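User: Sequence for Serine aminopeptidase S33 domain-containing protein below. Tokens please.
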Amino acid sequence: MDDLIGNMYAVLSNGGFHVLSVDYRGFGDSTGTPTEDGLTADAVCVYEWTKARSGPTPVCLWGHSLGTGVATNAAKVLEEKGFPADAIILEAPFTNIWVASINYPLLKIYRKLPGFLRSVMDSLRKDKLVFPNDENVKFLSSPLLIIHGEDDKTVPLEFGKKLYEIAHNAYRNKERVKMVIFPPGFRHNSLCKSSALLHIVRDFLSQQWA
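Assistant: Structure tokens for Serine aminopeptidase S33 domain-containing protein:
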């Protein structure tokens, strides 16, 4: 487990939240091959398993970076089943994996190479990877909190802002959508180090679940 991701789990757990996390297919202790459909199915299964055992306690879907795509995919499936997620928190989200890949800092170096853009698109299309956060949020009704670091260089803040704009425009109840931008210093992986994080999360969830 990545130390920074583990730190987020620790912060939430120490803050009074129960945290359940599983390894992606093909990673850690999980077997299989990671595919978008497979990761989505796994997330839905974990959510439903947890919800069935949580009693009156609400369950929140939390996704970070690539995980935001898994979270919104799962949320859309739950919405279509008629059982929307109790809440969704997206940490450093992108609009969709195509845009995120093309704008990933290390890839920008190669964007001017002949055929590079087409190669990336063909690869994503072949593997059927989309993770369309920008499309998924149009169909959601669950309370949605987007958190993003101002100095995130991996998934630039502009993507989080764009996703918030799309969601806010699509939601009938605008009060269910909120975005919080963290000041410079936390970048892509360190929002867990912010002393304001727990207060922001608690405040949002308490208002939505009141």
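The longest helix spans residues 36-53.
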